[in-house]
Amino acid sequence: MYRTIRINLPKEYNQLLMTLALIAGRIYSKTVSLIRKVHKKKRVWLSIGAVQKYLRLRNYPLHSQTMQALVEQYFDNLKSFFGQSGDKKRPPYRTSKYHSIPFKQSAIKVKDGKIRLSLGKGREPLIFNLPKEPKQKVRYAEICWDRTQRIYYLVLTVRQDAVKATRFTKVVSIDLGEIHPITTTDGKVTIIYNGRLIRAIKQYREKLKAKFSNMLSRCKKYSKRWWKLTKSKNRQLRKLNAQIKDAIHKITRHFANWCKKNRVGVVVIGNLTGIRKSIDYGSKTNQKLHQWTFAEITRQLRYKLAEFGIAVDELSEKDTTKTCPSCSLRSPTPGASLGLRNYWQKE
What we know:
Structural class: alpha+beta
Order of helices and strands: EHHHEEEEEEEEEHHEHHEH
Strand content: 15-25%
Oligomer: single chain
């Protein structure tokens, strides 16, 4: 299993990293234009090795493995084109002025609390301080731009060794909800996590979208004011999405730590796949259910509990409102637990 570590870089590196991002953008854009032109003229698709060899001869001031990684990113996108069907499909065609800067394992060295990223033979490497040196070997690194904070940040990918399954046998069940993200019990203790903050942020986000859509509808597309409003909209939406992500991370981390403290061995989660396919409870309720982030919560719980060797088991929630929790008999019509109790008493 792999995990990522984000490290914000000091602003004094912005100018240098912007120059490198510009070079990375040129390499990626050259890959796009080269493949498109050759295919248009010769009706053949260049191989990844041919493109990498061509770019290597152009002497870009980046590590050779970094150039290879940029070409591989394009070919990964190209694979999805070949997997599509229909007449409207088209290969990746967008070029970028700036691009994230990838570094493969051979260009990365971690020592004495610092990380060294090579830019190639004869060039000064990038050296950054690490807040905490990772215990595992760094397999991949990438320098990206954060539009919200206006800074560059470094993402490290490390391989996390598999943790042995815990010897504890205590089982805890989770009910995922739209208002309360996690409601959990072990039969004795019940914990309810309040998700109204997340709900409030989502509600404000939708109002913000409606407000900007109204203002943009009165502007000429691609005009100066249109671009100004679009940038402001995207900036505010990125901030709100980051707040939602942060709140989910805190809830799932608190729950994972609670499981470790209480010696939990297995966590059972309801599988809600496909729950949105046939719902129609009105526009407001449908919007809330379609914005429900139960898949993201499940994903985060899986890898955070795996760090402590706690197993995660998913069970279908189909017909749970029809089934008696006491004797497992099933009612012909769905109903609340009180209604079920009355139903079985009549029988």
